[in-house]
Amino acid sequence: MWCAVLRSVRASRVLAESKAAGTAILLRKREYQRISRLAACLYGRDSAIGSLLGVNQHLTTNEFLTPQAPGVAFNKDDQDSILKHSPDQPENPKVLKLAIIGAPNAGKSTLSNQLLGRKVFPVSCKVHTTRCKAQGILTEGDTQIILLDTPGMVNSVRAERHKLDKSFQTDPWESVKVADVVLVLVDVSDKWMRKSLHSEVLRCLSKNSHVTSILVLNKKYLMTLAKPGDWEYHSEVVTTQSPQEICNNIIREKLLEYLPQEIPYTVTQVTEFWEEGSGGQLVVKQTLYVAKENHVKLIIGPGGELISRIAKEAGRDLMNAFLCDVQLRLAVKYRKT
């Protein structure tokens, strides 16, 4: 029922702010704070990453019930309206574009999610989970930080060996060029990489030496790096991704987590059904097409246990992203290539 409340609140905020542009949907944080309490209780301190981000671990009850970020609208039209809407500029706005780069599987998307306080980027122990650059928007007070989450940096040899899209090579470089600050992330748990930087990262930094780069940060420090400038997005925007992109990425994350070797990289995802249910919940049906017949049984698992687990865990993450109930149904089919 609380999801229906969310939808009614969104509908009630439809305002004719511009005669030329027609109506636009405005979402206010006070309303999200009220209707997002249940989700905050369900998922706990989403934005906590300990002392690294300077998050207070001793929150009061009221503070705990207030999530760090609003949910993403699962209706594409709503999300598009928010993205197109003029930013609600404060009196003295400050802005910072932060590009996060590093070797594959260094933890870039994990850090982005923790900074945002909402899971909108896929995370997996396997490399190349992030397939293209995406933006997350962190707005606090008069400061807006635009997080440029990028794929792990690879050289041309590795890209050709793993048959990676060209974006794996170009996206990180393009993000660095438009960034105010570059955050270089190193996985200290990797004994081979923790004492040095990835060669491609070093090459990128040397080619863009005019851009400030940092290795260690906390959120308070990030805020101090922002400079006077107009916001690019409305304060209710969390990510520039579409709802469908978030859904596809979250499902693919689970496939990478539970399936062996190359199988997840060969799965084609097709959304067959995406609608709002009578109770305000999001109902999604997606078919996973595989290129080999024996992969169907592998993904489904004994008695359908594995595909059920994937759907359950992906659905839980989507609830966290959209702040509403999600009914996710997955089917697996063989399709000749």
UniProtKB/TrEMBL annotation:
It is a peripheral membrane protein. InterPro entries: G_ERA_dom, GTP-bd, GTPase_Era-like, KH_dom-like_a/b, KH_dom_type_2, KH_sf_prok-type, P-loop_NTPase, Small_GTP-bd. Its main location: mitochondrion. Residues 94-219 form the Era-type G domain. One of its GO terms (molecular function) is GTP binding. One of its GO terms (cellular component) is mitochondrial inner membrane. It comes from the Eukaryota. One of its GO terms (biological process) is ribosomal small subunit assembly. Keywords: GTP-binding, Membrane, Mitochondrion, Mitochondrion inner membrane, Nucleotide-binding, Ribosome biogenesis, RNA-binding, rRNA-binding, Transit peptide. It is found in: Mitochondrion inner membrane; Mitochondrion matrix. Belongs to the TRAFAC class TrmE-Era-EngA-EngB-Septin-like GTPase superfamily. Era GTPase family. Probable GTPase that plays a role in the mitochondrial ribosomal small subunit assembly. Specifically binds the 12S mitochondrial rRNA (12S mt-rRNA) to a 33 nucleotide section delineating the 3' terminal stem-loop region. May act as a chaperone that protects the 12S mt-rRNA on the 28S mitoribosomal subunit during ribosomal small subunit assembly. This is GTPase Era, mitochondrial. It comes from Engystomops pustulosus (Tungara frog). The lineage of its organism: Eukaryota, Metazoa, Chordata, Craniata, Vertebrata.
